[in-house]
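Researcher: Let's try something more involved. This one mixes different molecule types, so please make sure each is placed in the same coordinate frame as the others.
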Amino acid sequence: MKQTRILLSESEIPTHWYNVVADLPKPPAPPRGPDGEPLDPSAMLAIFPENIIEQEISAERWIAIPEAVREIYQQWRPSPMHRAHRLEQVLGTPAKIFYKNESVSASGSHKLNSAIAQAYFNKQAGIKRLTTETGAGQWGSSLALAGQMFGLDVRVYMVNVSYQQKPFRRSMMQTWGAEVLASPTELTRCGRKILADDPGNPGSLGIAISEAVEEAAGRDDTKYSLGSVLNHVLLHQTIIGQEAKKQLEQVGEYPDMIFAPCGGGSNFAGLAFPFLADAASGDKAPRLVAVEPASCPSLTRGHYAYDFGDTEGLTPLTLMYTLGHDFMPPSIHAGGLRYHGASALVSQLYHEKLIEAISVPQIATFEAGITFSRCEGIIPAPESCHAIRAVIDEALRCKESGEAKTLLFNLSGHGHFDMASYDKYLSGDLENYAYPEAAVNAALAHLPLGELAE
Amino acid sequence: MKQTRILLSESEIPTHWYNVVADLPKPPAPPRGPDGEPLDPSAMLAIFPENIIEQEISAERWIAIPEAVREIYQQWRPSPMHRAHRLEQVLGTPAKIFYKNESVSASGSHKLNSAIAQAYFNKQAGIKRLTTETGAGQWGSSLALAGQMFGLDVRVYMVNVSYQQKPFRRSMMQTWGAEVLASPTELTRCGRKILADDPGNPGSLGIAISEAVEEAAGRDDTKYSLGSVLNHVLLHQTIIGQEAKKQLEQVGEYPDMIFAPCGGGSNFAGLAFPFLADAASGDKAPRLVAVEPASCPSLTRGHYAYDFGDTEGLTPLTLMYTLGHDFMPPSIHAGGLRYHGASALVSQLYHEKLIEAISVPQIATFEAGITFSRCEGIIPAPESCHAIRAVIDEALRCKESGEAKTLLFNLSGHGHFDMASYDKYLSGDLENYAYPEAAVNAALAHLPLGELAE
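Model: All components are placed in one shared frame. Result:
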């Protein structure tokens, strides 16, 4: 019987998160204020507790995972790794395809890894409430559940267009006890300003972040929680890659190439960063490929410059690949990849050519997702379909060349709440959105410090 | 660190299905024709292949699981068992609560266990197409995926009201390549007859079965596939209970009571039957409790009599607990439990007092599901909420009495496609449907052989 699933025991849940900062060729560039001056980390205390800020700026290679967090991880971790024998067979490729299955968490994606950790550290710091934003709903639902598990109240600013289109992600958050608001709201100064200018504004991730940050900054009992982009969020996801290494070792494999969807970066970093440690130690060097949407390609088409993380300019300035903080990405169905920038760490690694990036068009990602689901059963999230598209393309190149490469990708989530998108694909109604060059150029003209990146 | 999840390795996937017929105190009553005469099994050849009929009538205790079926099972099996520490703590009960997690299959429920087996045996028998019915969509989506994996075309007659209310279960089946029709259709004699009498008929499971059976009986390349009720379907599910026994052994436990939702019976049988083997060998005897909806309580309020499995009377007559084949159950959200009868095997065991049954009202089941999801993360299917309600009630009785009972239940599926039902609960719009006594009495007056059961 061919082995299709590679499991680890509970005792093999990683005990530490891996911090890639320890292995960077040079230290990360500091965040800056709107005046361009380097910011002291204490500037973040208004929205994050001290223990989270310590992780955000740490250069320690290994950071211990608290036992209470590992105990909850155990409800679905170690997550399974699968060998996609049936997909290989359908493609007729000599490549070996493996995937790490993060869709098995209760919230349906890798996002729960960081949500549990953030809720824990906020609870430890005496915080009572968390605010956050959500687009596709994967992060919001993860934080709703994590808040519930640690007795924290959670308020989610959900991008209005998603709130309307994805009522069941909203129900999921409410089932787990969170309060969900359609953003922009009348509750924040920033929301009121946007609605005054444009009463029908559909919202965006950047706007929702502005609202959640504004609220947290204004209340002592409340902090803000972010689902990607920041160093500590990427850190929490590195359990994915650590487990994946052990699972491949168990079957005597090591990946030639690793693929993961890339929006803010936590999905990609979670799988790829622990393999960078091998490259840093001169041991082995798999090619690490971030896969972005063709219509929102921050790494492959953006500028490497200081920019805001949100639309309104409430966050610190970070050195990153950006399409401009006021760029409004097209309404692709992979809501988790609809973000103007990329995390500072992923950006730095890309800038230093330690990782690669490619972009893929929307329709081709759903085509890949359908092929995958008919072979492997699991219906992938639209974000995950981006990695699957890239893996299938590489496997087909291997078919041409006869190379038996070992390919690994992150099946970051399931698509149970994205079936309306699959419906659109199946009925031929899905758009393919070209790269919105004019809109990006307009947004890049507003870079707060101009092109002074380096 | 408390252990919350109990895993088995791939090599521990059961090699045989357990056939409870071998351990019954007396042989099952034979199916009968509409004239009341016992039917020869060959009468089923019009709708089932011979290898499935052999399983249906077998009295062998152990039936080997083909390697090709076990290989696909491996994509999600052995399924995890969880100890619900957090739920126990919230309830403040001395009881230990374990659940078998069947929600991890690609289709989201235990139904895939039998779908894979049925698709395999039909493929072996040279069949090209399968027809089936689905209500809530869990069975239809499971058969869609199984058909895809073995290269069989699948047509699903989906109860019209579900087709309208659960478009995403429909999308899921289409993603896996199945054809989905809203039943009643104009394609079958039975569908046309019903639509002629009542053009707005919302459909029912009984009608959809009639249509799927009629089509299969009329085409040589096509057979019919059923998701519950029949002996071979219950047989395929017994891997659940076999795995559960091993998992409890691993932590030194044995259940005092086992709970599972009960509609047709495959969910209950899958978990409970392997424990009946212990009772039969005089070894141990856990209490086995089937949990039904208060508004469709075939075991607790039905008659033990011969009746049809479908609305139109196309199936053989089976000795079972029934509310009458033309009883139309209220529109509860646990679509998988909206069936007028119970399987012959479950009915016989209940009649011989080897198992117990209770019924629970709808609102209380969702209340239990919410409590569970806030402790354990997983949002349960409305069917599974029935078992959870019963377990919570028992755990609270243990709190009163101080007994530290070991309780086990079947978390048969997740509720990702049932969030509209959770929405209704959360907004206070859910109905509680009383037992529809007059409608049941009217239907029971139409029992085809009258009260001649025994």
